[in-house]
């Protein structure tokens, strides 16, 4: 009952339900599924017996780092300044750099023969899924006007 | 026959308004180019660890290119034109000198990387990949700087 009350009080567009479940709840479930699949690919790339190298776990560092520039930029500036645009664009630049680094690190590992190319491919697939999940999280949950840290 | 493509128009796609997202697209492209350049150099340094194959001094080109990137993008076009409300700590002339030095560093690094490629690798009959990596690092950082500087618009009201 409480979810439906929260759902209807938050809707701006009038579309709150899809097959009887709140869209945002559905998005949360599919995004967490996506995150689990991505981490599964990463762990497969490390833990399969033919590979058995745990070097690719370093990309977790980039996963955790990737939302930080955008969150800092959004908290630091308000919306109608010229400086705020520059800050947001710098945050987008740094975030893109972190994403590229997360793709580059397994490739460099494979070139240095620390991991096999098959493990590299699994880790790159996991990267794609995780970054799509993080992007989806920000698109669905990040852009409402009453964003606050006490949302849940 | 002469003007048969004159009335050709691209198919209309109204789902995304690209003019509003121009700054974000330019930032993303610049980020991809910049960091791809650095990862190419990291890859070359990992695969060719010996100083005879890739002299460690060649990393300075990339460092100066990066420094030039941040110098060039630290001043906005409005500061250089003298249009903004506050003049900043250097004023208009200082902003122009800063931009000039930044571009000089950027072009110098690019030319140095080409020199390294041809002088230390192509003419020496060795494996040429490290030289290509130095060149591509600096070329990609150069293009990233141009896109980040000139691909974004500073107007608040388009």
TrEMBL record, chain A:
Query: Pfam families of this UniProt entry?
Result: Vps55
**Where does the record place it?**
Membrane
* Membrane-traversing stretches: 27-51, 57-77, 89-109, 115-141
This protein's UniProt keywords: Membrane, Transmembrane, Transmembrane helix
The biological processes this protein is annotated with in GO are: late endosome to vacuole transport via multivesicular body sorting pathway; negative regulation of growth hormone receptor signaling pathway
**Membrane topology annotation:** Multi-pass membrane protein
Output a single Gene Ontology CC term carried by this record: endosome
* UniProt-recorded Gene Ontology molecular function terms: identical protein binding
For this chain, the family text in UniProt reads: Belongs to the OB-RGRP/VPS55 family.
State what this protein does.
Negatively regulates growth hormone (GH) receptor cell surface expression in liver. May play a role in liver resistance to GH during periods of reduced nutrient availability.
Q: What is this protein called?
A: Leptin receptor overlapping transcript-like 1
TrEMBL record, chain B:
Give the highest taxon in the source lineage.
Answer: Eukaryota
Supply the alphabetized keyword list.
Answer: Membrane, Transmembrane, Transmembrane helix
Membrane-spanning intervals of the chain: 24-42, 57-76, 97-122, 128-148
Q: How does it sit in the membrane?
A: Multi-pass membrane protein
One Pfam match, by short name? UPF0220
Residue ranges that the Swiss-Prot or TrEMBL entry lists as coiled coil? none
Q: Where in the cell is it found?
A: Membrane
InterPro entries in the cross-refs: UPF0220
The family this protein is said to belong to: Belongs to the UPF0220 family.
UniProt cross-references to PANTHER family, sorted A to Z: SMALL MEMBRANE PROTEIN-RELATED
Q: Write down what this protein is called.
A: Transmembrane protein 50B
Question: Which gene carries the instructions for this protein?
Answer: TMEM50B
